[in-house]
Amino acid sequence: MKCLVIGYGSIGQRHARVLQEMGHDVALVSRSTTPEFLVFRSISEGVETWEPQYVVIANDTKIHAASLSELAKLKYEGITLVEKPLAAQIEELGAVPSGSVYVGYTLRFHPIIQRLVKHLRDEQLWTLTAYVGQFLPDWRPDSDYRKSYSARKEDGGVIRDLSHELDYVQLCAGTCRQTIVSGGQLSSLEIESEDAATLLAKLDRCPLATVHVNYLDRSPSRWIIANGSMGTIHVDLIKGVFSINGKEELVPVVRDSMIRDQHLAAMHQETSMLCTLEDAMATMRWIEAAHESLRTTHWVTVES
């Protein structure tokens, strides 16, 4: 397919490389130049000249909505994959392209998450806990974390940045209906946004879900514990361990396999594990309810 990657930061570079390795023709929309790819300076130039069948929006979160609107204005009708989150704020969203639009919650294609979803599908859940933490300055060691979008209050923060957890928790246990959050800018990191938060939530299929996210862990952590009629499932996405009632199994993950599988699913319209616009909107509503709860310290109903 003819693919157009909008944005050439670290995630845009990865998308472009993987798509090229998959055998697709790749061009970019970027202010940067690279000898590896044809580069256009605007979305309109890229769409009108390159005529892509597949577009990846991998630019700054705060311009995701504008990029979608631009594609719609240009009457682009192909497949679109938007990096997560869908937008910085729900009210920013306007028109979207008429073709299929998916959101890049790549962890849906982690073999452990896929196995977890399968095991929980028909079970009664009692509690679900997800934890993720990684030291923000280590994310992009070649750049100043204080100047990243993560540091900005209006479109950054650990709840937005690590919303993978909010997405897959809903994939496992249904839509979030109510939430209360504690946290904020707690550490010595020089940022405006929240660097740690614990979200308590009531989901359609789980009365007690807890999600903890932080920019602070010097040793990266990402794990999940589910209790229910199936017993106890404990998974560690960093170590690649899947455990049911204490019986552990190692689950290998091949480099770039998740992003490759996500592209394949989007291109072939295999929607069972893809994050749809509806799914992404549910996560955005939870994010906004979480920020409201941080401000008010009260339970917040997540609007449907």
Q: How far apart lie the N and C ends?
A: 36 Å
Quaternary structure type: single chain
The amount of beta strand, in percent, is: 25-35%
Task: Round the mean pLDDT to the nearest integer and report it.
Answer: 96
Structural class: alpha/beta
Largest sheet report: 9 strands, mixed
**Amount of helix:** 25-40%
- What overall geometry do the principal axes of the alpha carbons give? globular
Run of helices and strands: EHEEHEHEEHEHHEEEEEEEHEHE
The spatial strand order of the largest sheet comes to 14-13-12-11-7-10-9-8-16
State Rg.
19 Å
- Unreliable stretches, pLDDT < 50, 5 or more residues? none
**Count of helix runs:** 8
Instruction: Give me the count of strands.
Output: 16
Describe the fold and architecture:
Helices cover 28% and strands 29% of the residues. It has 304 residues and is an alpha/beta fold. A 9-stranded mixed beta sheet has the order 14-13-12-11-7-10-9-8-16. Helix 4 packs parallel to helix 6 (164-173). It starts with a strand and ends with a strand.
Keywords:
single chain, 304 residues, alpha/beta, 7-stranded mixed β-sheet, 8 helices
Q: What are the SSEs and their pairings?
A:
Elements: E1 2-6, H1 10-21, E2 25-29, E3 38-40, H2 43-50, E4 54-57, H3 64-73, E5 79-83, E6 101-104, H4 111-120, E7 125-133, H5 158-161, H6 164-173, E8 176-184, E9 196-203, E10 206-214, E11 221-228, E12 231-236, E13 241-244, E14 247-250, H7 257-267, E15 275-276, H8 277-296, E16 300-301
Parallel strand pairs: 1-2, 1-4, 2-3, 4-5, 5-6, 7-10
Antiparallel strand pairs: 6-15, 7-11, 8-9, 8-16, 9-10, 11-12, 12-13, 13-14
Helix pairs in contact: 4-6
